[in-house]
Specification:
The chain has 248 residues and is α/β, with parallel strands linked by helices. It contains twelve helices and eight strands. An eight-stranded mixed sheet has the order 3-2-1-4-5-6-7-8. Bound molecules: NADP nicotinamide-adenine-dinucleotide phosphate.
Length: 248
């Protein structure tokens, strides 16, 4: 498939690598001009383009930027055909994104993204750490294969997202509609806890929506205490232990 990725940080770059290796035709963009693309990103085999080019003539567009940057790129989406699948990896972290009143007021994060873009999306790859995404993929059928949750409102988005997740080396766990995707937001038991599909099935309904923000903020406080920055990517093992201790 032809896939455009906007945002090539920890997650976007890893997706460029994985999806390129799976045989897809991947183009990537960030805030800079294509000539200034990091060589590490080009080493994935992806082609550097502008953000405008990343949304043109692609079957799938993946957004992997901080949530509070989504309004910056929203105007580009006016020209994206309805049948294109847009998959968003973002999460709301007020310590990084500043407070977004609609989300603070209870709007599900992915529904806020659909409001900003004015179109349907799928939500995926938001609930796995970038290092786990890079290193922990396994063949289909392996009993220890980690599952990545995803949500979408349209059947076509659901099918494409499921297929792409599986091609990155993980089981795809369908959590249902975007309105229910708070179950895969930061603070939920299935968020960045590297569970199998069977483990997700046994834990997803234990999520308590009202408790998620406090648990998310406790995790950020612990990361900041170690790393002095709310934007730091924690060491994979520490991040996993922290998420399991606080969220499950
Ligand atoms: N890190 C993780 O393990 C992880 C896991 C799951 C989900 N997520 C979520 O996925 C999203 C990306 O996270 P990340 O850690 O990969 O972020 P990151 O390392 O900070 O990278 C962000 C990327 O977005 C680009 N970007 C920012 N604003 C942009 C704009 N207006 N137009 C085009 N590109 C823009 C940046 O480009 P420049 O370099 O040019 O600024 C950069 O390539 C976040 O919402 C995060 O919460 C992260």
């Amino acid at each position: 498939m032809k896939i455009g990725i906007i945002g090539v940080g920890y997650i976007g770059k890893t997706l460029a690598l994985k999806l390129g290796s799976a045989g897809h035709n991947v183009s990537v963009a960030n805030t800079r001009s294509p000539e200034k693309m990091d060589p590490d990103v080009l080493a994935t085999g992806a082609k550097a383009v502008t953000a405008q080019q990343a949304i043109e003539d692609n079957e799938v567009i993946i957004l992997s930027i901080p949530l509070n940057r989504i309004p910056d790129i929203a105007p580009l989406f006016a020209s994206v055909p309805e049948n294109v699948t847009v998959i968003d990896t973002s999460n709301y972290y007020p310590a990084r994104d500043l407070k977004i009143n609609r989300i603070e007021g209870g709007l599900v994060e992915s529904l806020w993204v659909t409001e900003q873009l004015g179109r349907p999306i799928a939500k995926a790859w938001n609930a796995i750490g970038s290092q786990s995404l890079k290193k922990n993929g396994k063949s289909s059928g392996d009993s220890d294969r980690i599952a990545i949750p995803f949500a979408a409102d349209r059947g076509t988005d659901r099918n494409i997202t499921k297929k792409l997740i599986e091609e990155t080396g993980f089981d795809a766990y369908d959590t249902g509609l975007l309105a229910d995707s708070w179950r895969q937001q930061p603070g939920a038991p299935i968020y960045c806890t590297d569970l199998t599909a069977a483990q997700i099935a046994s834990l997803i309904d234990t999520a308590e929506r009202a408790r998620l923000p406090a648990r998310r903020d406790l995790a950020v406080a612990a990361i900041m205490e170690r790393m002095s920055s709310a934007e730091a990517n924690p060491d994979a093992d520490f991040g996993l232990r922290l998420s399991r201790a606080l969220y499950i």
